[in-house]
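Tokens in:
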């Protein structure tokens, strides 16, 4: 059933699950869904933005809008001391100025990047600069970090806030809490905190986030969206009281949120393994006939996850029948020349063509940022 994002937000709000995990392709609308859900939980009123008081909020969220609170002052005149400016907002004010969590932020940031890369907050916490320690023990000050590192830093700020939220709300008696600023919170929405992380750090972030959420003993609920199959897979295996969905957007601008259950949620890592195996064979010019079997397996599992009745429906529209026959013949060895072990040059090209098509058209394992 096709819905608006507002209707999907209502659907998410209607569940009693502690965690709702959503997979969606890049560009589907995950960030817009975070805003629609915010409107569902806590309708926008005059002055209700990132600068409003935390005590007024029912939901906090991490998304591209969170990253907009940080922007570079590149010192264009001298190009010598670039720094990341922090727009005045309730989140960083509470975390940095009131709670003094700057060292916790630095520790988390270095965990996902490098212990040689160090943030330096200004005295009034209105900006942050970065230095990098070289192998000769010399520090290079005032460097501009990459976009991925910048995203990791902003996530580290949000992570510090989330740790404080969960710790305070875990105290059952309101009067015993050290602050009352989180008492109205009901939901946390996390949209893709994994931009540019390598697989090891991505898994580490997923495990740490899951552990943090599982430590929550209050009624606080969590919604996590991602385009990363590996991140999704790790989180799926970490949580028990959860609901899992796939978000899709249609050409007419409508959406669907389909609940996924069973093995369809467990196959992401296997998809990644198949893709990496075929890609390596292509890169090494060592494509053999059994790679057609792997390619068909990949198409079959992708079709099953996406809800297509036939895997061949994922093939290029103009040559579905042709490519279907090639994959079937080569993977099942039904041709008269089945004794020939080596595929032809054209068959090798076909493997790469069909893998690229699947990645570009239905590529939910791709790791690029949303």
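Residues out:
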């Amino acid at each position: 059933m096709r819905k608006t994002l507002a209707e999907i937000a209502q659907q998410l709000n209607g569940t009693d699950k502690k965690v709702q995990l959503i997979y969606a392709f890049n560009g589907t609308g995950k960030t817009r869904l975070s805003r629609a859900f915010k409107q569902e939980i806590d309708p926008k009123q005059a002055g209700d933005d990132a600068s409003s008081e935390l005590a007024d909020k029912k939901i906090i969220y991490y998304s591209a809008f969170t990253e907009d609170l940080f922007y570079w002052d590149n010192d264009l005149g001298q190009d010598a001391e670039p720094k990341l400016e922090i727009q005045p907002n309730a989140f960083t004010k509470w975390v940095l100025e009131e709670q003094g969590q700057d060292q916790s932020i630095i520790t988390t940031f270095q965990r996902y990047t490098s212990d040689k890369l160090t943030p330096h907050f200004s005295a009034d916490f209105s900006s942050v600069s970065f230095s990098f320690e070289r192998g000769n023990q010399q520090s290079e000050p005032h460097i501009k970090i990459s976009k991925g590192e910048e995203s990791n830093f902003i996530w580290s700020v949000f992570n510090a806030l989330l740790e404080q939220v969960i710790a305070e709300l875990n105290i059952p008696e309101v009067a015993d809490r050290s602050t009352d600023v989180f008492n109205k919170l009901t939901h946390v929405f996390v949209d893709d905190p994994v931009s540019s992380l390598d697989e090891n750090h991505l898994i580490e972030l997923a495990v740490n986030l899951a552990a943090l959420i599982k430590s929550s003993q209050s009624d606080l609920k969590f919604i996590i969206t991602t385009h990363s199959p590996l991140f999704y897979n790790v989180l799926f295996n970490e949580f028990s009281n959860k609901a899992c969905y796939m978000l899709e957007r249609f050409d007419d601008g409508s959406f669907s949120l389909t609940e996924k259950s069973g093995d369809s949620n467990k196959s992401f890592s296997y998809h990644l393994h198949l893709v990496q195996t075929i890609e390596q064979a292509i890169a090494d010019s060592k494509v053999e006939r059994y790679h057609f079997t792997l390619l068909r397996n990949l198409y079959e599992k992708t079709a099953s996850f996406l809800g297509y009745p036939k895997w061949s429906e994922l093939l290029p529209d103009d040559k579905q029948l042709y490519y279907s026959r090639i994959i079937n013949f080569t993977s099942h060895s039904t041709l008269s020349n089945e004794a020939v072990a080596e595929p032809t040059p054209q068959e090798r090209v076909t493997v790469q063509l069909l893998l690229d098509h699947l990645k570009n058209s239905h590529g939910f394992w791709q790791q690029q940022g949303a």
